[in-house]
Structure formats: C-alpha cells, structure tokens
Amino acid sequence: KQEVTQIPAALSVPEGENLVLNCSFTDSAIYNLQWFRQDPGKGLTSLLLIQSSQREQTSGRLNASLDKSSGRSTLYIAASQPGDSATYLCAVSPTETLNQGGKLIFGQGTELSVKP
Amino acid sequence: DTGVSQDPRHKITKRGQNVTFRCDPISEHNRLYWYRQTLGQGPEFLTYFQNEAQLEKSRLLSDRFSAERPKGSFSTLEIQRTEQGDSAMYLCASSLSRANRGNLGNTIYFGEGSWLTVV
User: Fold this and answer.
1) Tens-place pLDDT, residues A19-34
2) Which of B91, B104, B110 sits opposite A101 (nearest CB)?
3) Contact assessment for residue B54 and residue A103, using Cβ atoms and an 8 Å cutoff
4) Over the stretch B46-88, which tens digit does the pLDDT of each residue have?
5) Sheet with strand A72-77: strands edge to edge
6) How far is B77 from chain A, CA to nearest CA, in Å?
7) Which chain A residue has the Cα nearest residue B88?
C-alpha cells in the first residue's frame, strides 16, 4: 500500500532563507509526483508536476526533484518570502490502479511560516 | 475559465440529516474527483469520474456516500444520515485526460472546498 510521508510537519524560517521540504513514498510504481500549496481554509494550488521519467521541474523560485528509485522528492524554495507561508503537500499518482493517474495519494503536509 | 467551483462553501447540519454538495469543474475537463480532508491531514481520495462514468471508489466511501455526474459536467456528492465523523472539508478537483495518455501529464485543479460540520 502506497504511503506518503512529509518531514518536517512544520517549519519556521526568517525571510530570505533558502529551504527544502522533504517527501518520501513507499512504492516507486508511480506515474508522477505533484507538489501543492494550500492556504488556511482554502483549496489546493498545483505548484509543480514531475513525471516518473523526469528528475526535476522548476518554476520561478521553486525547484522540485524526484528520485523514484529511492522514493524521495524535495521541494526547494529559494529566497523565501512571507507570502510563501502556507502548507505544502506532495502527492503521488500510483500505477496499481487502472485509471492511469486518476488518483492521488497525499502526504500530511509541511506547514511553512516565513517570518519578516 | 472560472476554475472549479463548489457549493455550498460551508454547511452545518444535525447528525442524521442528509447533505448534498455540488461541484462544477473547469468546462473542458473530462475527469472529476472528490477528496475529503480533515484538519492537519492531507486530502484522502474518495472517488473519480471520467465523463459520466464513475471509474473508482475508495473504501472510505461507505454506503451512506453517493456521487453522481449524470451528464459528464457537474457532480454531486450526497451524504446520507450524517455522523459527526463526517465533519471535514470535501474537495472537488478536475483535469483533462487525453485518451492515449490517461492523466499522466495533466495538472489537477482543485476547488476551494465545502466545509461540513455535523453537530
């Protein structure tokens, strides 16, 4: 059974610091891995999607890497800003179902606070 | 493109009552998903549709839960005889799945969620 774990559960950093969020998954049979952002009481916003054949994706100050064989992904945020404060969730799309990527399994999230 | 919209955004109901949530996906998206999220946890998959066909249901979806997408556009999620443990945020999402690639490369877009409190 696929399980996704995110460490740390919460992180507080001063503005301007570079930081890394970690995600691990137990089964390497995945179609892709996605990172999402969730503001309090809101829905999820997709940040980056990495296909199983890819190693990393970049968008602005965000860089996500994927090491499928070891079951790990990291989200790197450069030059953090107070506006980056949110919960960051990673999710994998397992291949064990027939739906070709229709289902996501989420981690519990990392709650990030960037202090001015 | 107005995004995924959900209604109502908040619902307080007494235990034992039935509730229904509606989701309108992004207009050209053929896949629609329902997830449930409790405080401090990531979303849990409930079910998903491709067009009007319900292709997968989680074991979390007990007999009291039913979802429909009758014309392959909007969807409803009904919870019958609500229990306090049903209190959560119910998230809807949609994506565009191309026939020969499944959902391999397509981003999933989430709505703002519908909060349910059962008292």
Assistant:
1) 999 999 999 988 889 9
2) B104
3) no
4) 999 989 999 888 887 889 999 999 988 999 999 999 999 999 9
5) A4-7, A19-25, A72-77, A62-67, A56-59
6) 17
7) A41
